[in-house]
Amino acid sequence: MESIDWKNLPFGYLKTDYNIRCQFKDGKWGSLEVSSSEYFNIHIAATGLHYGQEVFEGLKAYRGKDNKIRLFRCRDNAQRMFDSGSYIQMAAPPVDLFVEAVQKAVKLNERFVPPYESGATLYVRPLLIGTGAQVGVKPADEYLFVVFTTPVGPYFKTGFKPLDVMITRNSDRAAPLGTGHVKVGGNYAAGLTAGVAAQQLGYASCLYLDAKEKKYIDECGPANFFGIKNNTYITPDSKSILPSITNRSLMTLAQDLGIKVERRPIEVPELETFEEAGACGTAAVITPIKKIFDPETNKVYDYGSEAGPVSVKLYNLLRAIQYGDAEDTHGWITFVE
Ligand SMILES: Cc1ncc(COP(=O)(O)O)c(C=O)c1O
Hints:
Layout: E1 19-25, E2 28-29, E3 33-35, H1 47-50, E4 54-56, E5 59-63, E6 69-72, H2 74-87, H3 95-108, E7 121-130, E8 143-152, E9 163-168, H4 185-200, E10 205-209, E11 217-220, E12 224-229, E13 232-235, H5 245-256, E14 260-263, E15 276-281, E16 285-294, E17 299-302, H6 309-322, E18 333-336
Parallel strand pairs: 9-10, 9-16, 13-14
Antiparallel strand pairs: 1-2, 1-3, 1-8, 4-7, 5-6, 5-7, 6-18, 7-8, 10-11, 12-13, 12-15, 15-16, 16-17
Bound molecules: pyridoxal-5'-phosphate (PLP).
Pyridoxal-5'-phosphate binds next to α5.
């Protein structure tokens, strides 16, 4: 096998051996098929191409010191894909079918699961797309569920080093009663311009505000946001952010560690009062935030260039569970055998 520089992998696509596919046709899901092609044929009138009937997921497989491969909260990703697909009128794979497909995809690409302590993981990307032809705006009657994998390094180049983000005020990724709470591709299309603009100004990511009032923090690019003060983990309560599985896990772990947890709206000026701030997600893990720039007021909220103690504690515990170095007391791990 071509040698892979595990320690310097980007968060990008690298071909692996196989992907899994499953078709929904005539009102039912077929069996899982193994493919070694990176392509599929699609009807020119497929709803996934025209009307955005497309949802996806992202999770990781971790190789432990014991060489075993672990998936983290895979059933939660399965449930979220089901919820996302259902929300935009798609037939979505049942939880067990999703888990079986993910297990199979990882097992078949086992040689691409990076070694323990390389800092890299095998990213798993389940995709669901409307393949049935429609010309009127209607849900498809045929769907394709695909799971592919690719080994990745950290999402943000800095890894666990704090980075700078910029508040976005001139565009929204999701409407107040729109699709922000589900993982549809359209949300990411809507956020591309703001993301590129932030990066051009030297920021790692944009920080979205609520679409209705531009008063509250929503989320941070492809990750949820949290702030820490007075031994309390505070994270936005908003109907237009993606319910992050990582964030949910961190709230649980914070409680385990005796840290208080508050899930509530966060007004922009409250940023001033946080001792630490961070972005969290499967790809971002915990990425501490150094500075937040608000272009409206020219204000910079500065949390320092080292990760704060609470972020460090949470990061270490989460990673330890994912890699099997700490006990899985919440039943979050599924082994790939
Ligand atoms: C918009 C958005 N927010 C938050 C997250 C983090 O969610 P999770 O922790 O489930 O990966 C993601 C990534 O899936 C995302 O795309």
